[in-house]
Amino acid sequence: DAKTTQPNSMESNEEEPVHLPCNHSTISGTDYIHWYRQLPSQGPEYVIHGLTSNVNNRMASLAIAEDRKSSTLILHRATLRDAAVYYCILNYGGSQGNLIFGKGTKLSVKP
Amino acid sequence: AAGVIQSPRHLIKEKRETATLKCYPIPRHDTVYWYQQGPGQDPQFLISFYEKMQSDKGSIPDRFSAQQFSDYHSELNMSSLELGDSALYFCASSLGRQGVSTDTQYFGPGTRLTVL
Q1: Which of A51, A62, B57, B69 lies most in the core, judged by the most C-beta atoms within 10 Å?
Q2: pLDDT tens-digit profile, chain A (111 residues)
Q3: Least CB–CB distance from A99: residue in B55, B105, B110
């Protein structure tokens, strides 16, 4: 599976936007980019996914670079509840769908 | 909305004992995944099932086995438990076409297994 690289940790202030970067320089044309997050003591939770175009949903936005070698998860207004580990995961379009979790980014949100 | 149910939530076992973890997927979901998360580690994929057949296998020890039943619930059986098996075990479900990679996975709250 293609590898992703994320910062170990990031900090944000409450109610400010947060941009979480992910590098995936070896991404192939059929790899989808998925983001999941894991709040403390909970199971991972789906955030968003995309292939080539930018995507928006009620939780976040996903901005994908034109060459697809990087992407950014955008939380428009961070809340204390957004403090979690965020995982950027590549998932081959034809695979069985299991998620390969790497080292995510631990996001801290300050009040 | 109904979520993935896992039982038990906590389990304490002695070394060399056996354990059975259960997972009840979201209604109408036909694909189940099992993940293991050791202390301070990231989740690791163990095994998955689609329509009661094993669809993929990750780093699951030979001491572990799993199956999906006709009502789509799944059980993870763990034998000859070792101290290193102490971890959180998550089950996830999706409405998949044999685990197509765009299908969202919904995770349960996990079972915390402690082996003494």
Answers
A1: A62
A2: 558 999 999 999 999 999 999 999 999 888 889 999 999 989 999 999 999 999 999 999 999 999 999 999 999 999 999 999 999 998 865 556 788 898 999 999 999
A3: B105
